Amino acid sequence: MEKIIIDPVTRIEGHAKISIELNEDKSVNDARLHVTQFRGFEKMCEGRPYSDMPAMTARTCGICPVSHVIASTDACDNILAVRPPKAARSIRRIINLAQIIQSHALNFYHLSSPDFVYGFDANPSERNIFSLMKSHPQMAKDGIKLRAFGQKIIEKLGGKRIHPTKVIPGGVSQALEAEVRDEILAQIPEMLDIAQNAMKYFKSALPKFKKEIESFGNFPSLFMGLVNKEGNLIHYDGYLRFMDAQGNILADGIEPRFYKDYIGEAVEKDSYLKSPYYKPLGYPEGMYRVGPLARLNIINACGTVLADEHLEDFKNLNNGKPVLNSFYYHYARLIEIIYALEKIEAKLNDPKTMSQPIRSHAKVNRNHGVGCSEAPRGTLFHDYEVDDNGIITKVNLIIATGNNALAMNEGVKQVAKAFVDGNSVKEGSLNRVEGVIRCFDPCLSCSTHAQGIYTSLIELKNHNGEIIKTIKR
Amino acid sequence: MRKIIGIGNPLRGEDAFGYDMIAMLMQSHQKPQVDLIYKQQLTPELCLELLDATELVFIDAGYLKGFSYILYCPLEKDFVPSLSHHISVKMLLEMLGSLYGVYPKVIRICLAVNDFEKIASKREYDKALQSVAEYISSLKAF
């Protein structure tokens, strides 16, 4: 069977390849995403004190370490059986939202915008950030400003931009200072303007992408994410909700520590990505999506003024039912940036954020703790088992991007079938196959974990590239 | 304004070279008109910290098979094949020029290394640190 291989997949975080299998008549039979990186955090962390976990698991990623720190400290809080004080929960939420702003901004402005500005069929020598900086310098600068804003908050409140240190089990290690609060507040109006301009641009560009919208990962699936007690958007300290493609809530109000009752994990033969699925429906029928699109589908409201205005338009895309087209992840991402800015402003103006105390103290009270946060790419779980001394005995991580594994594969197959003709393979078609992966904004370095049997194939090649030995396990 | 930027992960063996260089320069550096910056990785928003730069010195470690502890200047061959959440020196300079009209003079110093698990030879590693420190101290305007 003939194959087209896209390797590497460009303008994403991490390393992946896509294989497209062709039938005899050169039509597309199947397409798969293969994640070629392997990590081993679940094994590496065994034998470590639970208090090391936020610092260790933050190193899963240099792009979304905040999400890992938040989920990890949440798991540690459960082991200690404490609830962090209001100020600490507020500061954690602000840092998490800041990460969402900077991560979403990079995807939109620098990774995906060349496709929106020049079109998917543009010459690759033109369709890149270098051209964007010349033809749309303000757009490129806006992306840098939003990223700098988000990273500054993480640095000021978290201690470091990458692998923050001040979010700790029980709370945070430093209270928010008034001058830091005021410095951040002063920048929010400009950031909101930038985000609103991006939304305006994106909405004006949408009519150009009707075919992509129809075929970029447009299929029924479940959706999962966190909601607060009112069923509104929240990225930390919430409850799990599952919704089907018609908008029916299948399960709701689930405390994240009971995730295993609802989520199973399958292992794929050709990828280091696990495939989580909704247990009551089995694998693979229980495929669900997470991340910005899923979050906006499952919620009743964002809870902030500007974001809710955009949410109404978003929900109208499918007459109030869940939006199924993965292309609209980009739309959802922009709404989340606006929400995050508004929410950060609200939290900074809330006196509870500046209150004391900032940390709850306890010793190990439970042998099991589960933490959960909404990362930029979706719901993240950290599940730790410890002995009575607090030493980690077992770890399970369900990574945001991993939740989307089945959906990404489905998306890649759908786009390949819609756009790739094996008789005449066009670069723009292959770019679209990559483009559907960009919709999900995967963080592949984070996402590669495995369970069960490890299979590997090692090929030894000589200096001529000829295979001289194969080792298979 | 001259800015010296050390890049690398201090927890990854010889990748700490950029970090260790900045730490050494912070202890010894006398000149007031020099900014010392450490970054674990280069990201687009670093541009905003470099808008007043007239001279940039980048210091990091790079895997170079078969070579150890050799100092080299790879700017011309430096590229990252795909854009991600971190960027290359060349991409950063392109952003500075295209978006902000800032074109500083640039020197890139890279220590060729083979090991990101540990510092294989502390003696050679420290010798390289010392060489770069001396070189930077002697650097006139470029």
Short description:
With 473 residues, chain A is an alpha+beta fold. Chain A is built from 15 helices and 16 strands.
Could you outline the blueprint of secondary structure elements for this entry?
The complex is a heterodimer of chains A (473) and B (142).
Chain A: E1 3-6, E2 16-22, E3 28-35, H1 41-44, H2 53-58, H3 65-80, H4 86-118, H5 129-135, H6 137-158, E4 167-168, E5 171-172, H7 178-205, H8 210-215, E6 222-227, E7 239-243, E8 249-254, E9 263-267, E10 274-278, E11 288-289, H9 292-298, H10 305-316, H11 329-349, E12 368-375, E13 378-386, E14 392-398, H12 400-403, H13 405-419, H14 427-440, H15 444-447, E15 457-461, E16 467-472
Parallel strand pairs in A: 6-11
Antiparallel strand pairs in A: 1-2, 2-3, 4-5, 6-7, 7-8, 9-10, 12-13, 13-14, 15-16
Helix pairs in contact in A: 4-6, 4-11, 5-6, 6-7, 7-11, 10-11, 13-14
Chain B: E1 2-7, H1 17-28, E2 34-39, E3 55-63, E4 71-72, H2 89-100, E5 105-113, H3 122-138
Parallel strand pairs in B: 1-2, 1-3, 3-5
Antiparallel strand pairs in B: 4-5
Q: Which regions of chain A contain 5 or more consecutive residues with pLDDT less than 50?
A: 450-455
Oligomeric status: heterodimer
Helix-residue proportion of chain B: 25-40%
Number of helices of chain A: 15
Q: Cα-atom Rg of chain A, whole angstroms?
A: 22 Å
Kindly report how far apart the N and C termini of chain A lie.
24 Å
Straight-line N-to-C gap of chain B: 12 Å
What structural class do the secondary elements of chain B suggest?
alpha/beta
In DSSP terms (H or I, runs of 4 or more residues), the helix count of chain B works out at 3
Give the low-confidence spans of chain B: none
Helix content class of chain A: 40-55%
Given the helix and strand composition of chain A, which structural class is it? Answer: alpha+beta
Could you say which overall geometry of chain A the principal axes of the C-alpha atoms support? globular
Beta content of chain A = 15-25%
Strand order of the largest sheet of chain A: 8-7-6-11
